[in-house]
Amino acid sequence: MSIFVLPGDLIVPGSTGSKKLKLGPGLVEQSSAIVATRAGTLHSKQRTTFFIDSDTQRYVPASSDPVIGTITARQAESYRVDIGSASPATLDFLAFEGASKRNRPSLRVGSLVYARVSVAQRHLDPEIQCYDATTGKSAGFGELKGGMVIKVGAKTARSLLSPTHFLLPLLGAQFPLEVATGVNGRVWLSSVEKAASGSSTTSRNSVKNTIAAIRCVQAYDEEGLDAKGILALLASLSL
Amino acid sequence: MPRPTSPSIPEKEFLVSAIQQSLRLDGRPLTTLREPQLIFGSELGWVECVMGKTRVLAAIDAKMVKPAADRPYEGMINIHSEISPMASSEYEQGRTSDEEVTITRMLDKVLRRSDALDKESLCVVAGQRVWSLRLTIQFLSDGGNMLDCACLAGIVALRHFRKPEVDVEGEEVTIHSPESRAPLPLAIHHTPICFTFALFSFPTTQTGSTAAPLISTLPSGSFSTHQTYALLDPDLLEETLAHGTLSIALNAQSELCVLQKMGGVPLDQAKVVRLVELAVEKAKELEIFIERSLKEDWAGRGLEVI
């Protein structure tokens, strides 16, 4: 079920029995009615979960979102990170795998990090962490070295995170590709050929391939190209 | 409003390694413009210029005023430009950024002081009545290189604009409405177009890059330790990270109007000449494009042709 809704539209969920209703982004409860606060398509899961999917450029942090941020300052116990939200996020020195009071992470101002939003409340600065708090492992989060980051719409970013989405597997089949997608609309892409000539990350092919990947993701974001269109674009890039 | 964050380290490194291989993120060669697009409004002299993600709007209105006492035969042209937060969240309302000062001064040099417009043709009654043109430039979106986009929008607006026809009988001045008599185009001497190059200068490595840069022969002097790359029409990231810029304003007849170099990248004479030659080539292409767009718009308007 997907209906297009506008801000102020009333949403009438069907009967859910005894189950509690869950409201995602773009929906608020106002005197026992559910009202949309954003324009977009309304989605629902199992009649109890509702959310609005809209293609916004602005990022509003939500708990457990994967995001990509740039370190803007180093403070006594934490980093300030720009994740594109209204206020900068805090990244604690201890929020890394294997970090302790003695063993601090050494990130420079300007480094890119892939992190998960841990605290997102309306009246507090968001907090992010680079590890999974339950296991203490990095779980794929951490500093992003090399590569290039681009900005896309929130809808594109969310769809790229879906494991069934066509684009990233299609690009990965063409050349080696590493991707990190943040729902704050930033996508980090890196194509490094490991076998050839050792450690050089600036080899001609890796730069060329990364640019090709960037252009494909941007084309998908701006023009909504399908798999056929992306393949045609890749062919025209003369790799 | 917090200060805009500068690009991250990976972005800087990637851009540098791409430029050293003569590659750009949007797939253009180093010396290619983003294809400009001109959108004409319903009113004459209303032009929106789009280059990639950069958008600039130029609009002209004319009114009749008394000329300055020391220049009784000359009309006036005023250029108003202000970068509002609409262009990008970097800019603040009411506070003039360095970039805005640069762009305003360049617009003044390129559009007004280059004498593109014949000011004497704006005179109606000497010492009594002249046309005063007001060119308003609005920056709608900053995708890099707003200067070139604004200059293009401004000059096309001047060429697109038509002033109402005027009759003078003794002291009596009659302004005819566009319905009764077709308005007249402004007398324009030439069409200056601005081209900006972002300059990047890297120390040369012994191994050297395999790709041939734009300026391949290095001068014999002290610059030989550095390799300079010039990128025409930089986008936002290139503009932010550039070590310097070179703006060249000229017309299709190879008459140089303004040459402005900012930042501390040393450039020798031969390189500057080569960039100017390249700009001439581009100016000729763009002039043809402007002519064609104006003609197409005029044909679509269905007004009576003078």
Automatic annotation (TrEMBL), chain A:
Keyword RNA-binding: yes
K Homology domain boundaries: 147-191
Source domain of life: Eukaryota
Listed GO CC annotations: cytoplasmic exosome (RNase complex); nuclear exosome (RNase complex); nucleolus
Subcellular location: Nucleus, Nucleolus
Keyword list, A-Z: Exosome, RNA-binding, rRNA processing
Keyword RNA-binding set for record: yes
GO biological process: CUT catabolic process; exonucleolytic trimming to generate mature 3'-end of 5.8S rRNA from tricistronic rRNA transcript (SSU-rRNA, 5.8S rRNA, LSU-rRNA); nuclear polyadenylation-dependent rRNA catabolic process; poly(A)-dependent snoRNA 3'-end processing; TRAMP-dependent tRNA surveillance pathway; U4 snRNA 3'-end processing
Primary subcellular site in the record, as a coarse category: nucleus
GO molecular function: RNA binding
UniProt-listed InterPro entries: Exosome_RNA_bind1/RRP40/RRP4 (IPR026699), KH_dom_type_1 (IPR004088), KH_dom_type_1_sf (IPR036612), NA-bd_OB-fold (IPR012340), Rrp40_N_euk (IPR041054), Rrp40_S1 (IPR037319)
Annotated Gene3D superfamilies: 2.40.50.100, K Homology domain, type 1, Nucleic acid-binding proteins
Record-annotated Exosome complex exonuclease Rrp40 N-terminal domain positions: 21-58
PANTHER family in UniProt: EXOSOME COMPLEX COMPONENT RRP40, PNAS-3 RELATED
Protein family according to the UniProt entry: Belongs to the RRP40 family.
Name of the protein in question: Ribosomal RNA-processing protein 40
Organism of derivation: Serendipita vermifera MAFF 305830
TrEMBL record, chain B:
Coiled coil: none
Official protein name in the record: Uncharacterized protein
Keywords from the named record: Cytoplasm, Nucleus, RNA-binding
Family, similarity comment: Belongs to the RNase PH family.
GO CC annotation terms, alphabetical: cytoplasmic exosome (RNase complex); nuclear exosome (RNase complex)
Superkingdom classification of source: Eukaryota
Pfam families, per database record: RNase_PH, RNase_PH_C
Residues in Exoribonuclease phosphorolytic domain copies: 38-164, 223-281
One of the GO biological process terms: nuclear mRNA surveillance
Annotated compartments: Cytoplasm; Nucleus
GO MF: mRNA 3'-UTR AU-rich region binding
Main subcellular location: cytoplasm
Family matches, as PANTHER family: EXOSOME COMPLEX COMPONENT RRP45, EXOSOME COMPLEX EXONUCLEASE RIBOSOMAL RNA PROCESSING PROTEIN
InterPro entries membership: ExoRNase_PH_dom1 (IPR001247), ExoRNase_PH_dom2 (IPR015847), ExoRNase_PH_dom2_sf (IPR036345), Exosome_comp_Rrp42_subfam (IPR050590), PNPase/RNase_PH_dom_sf (IPR027408), Ribosomal_Su5_D2-typ_SF (IPR020568), Rrp45 (IPR033100)
Organism of derivation: Serendipita vermifera MAFF 305830
